[in-house]
Amino acid sequence: KILIEGNVPIIQVRAKQILQKERFELGANIIAERKKNQLVIMNDRLDFPLLLNADGVHLGQSDLPPVTARKLLTPSMLLGYSTHNLEQVKEAQSLPVDYLGFGPIFETKTKDHADSAVGIDLLHKACKLSFKPIVAIGGIDIDSLSDVIAAGAKSAVMISGIFDHDNPAKIIARANAIIYPTISS
Fold this sequence. Notes:
alpha/beta
């Protein structure tokens, strides 16, 4: 609800800690309540975004291969793919994906068994290496967001950086202004 009301342009339904049925219902509710200009991306599973008519799916390194996923998605659906090092970014350039998640940039507490933090310098190298847009992930908060965008990321995922704050709406507005300054002004 906070993300929808805050007009977050892209909402990724991740929610790995809940049952699959609950994740499906959560996705359905977000899609039903979202604003006209908001995209909803489902995580990991290809069947959920197809059944819910979501805007896309985000796959990890151990999920369905992107080549197979692209064949099953409708042409308008976005396909994102997680990468954690420069070799994976390089390999992903030939994959039929629309954007790459890269990170974790910083230490993160929202993912069990997360990869080691890569830092801003490696994010910058990944952004220079990739001709696909990079979405930075992992441990990003409002204080580090400007550095992430300056390193070349087109967007960033913020979970704790929003929900651990006492005024999430204010953080969302500030984040939107940093990531999308022409839309926010």
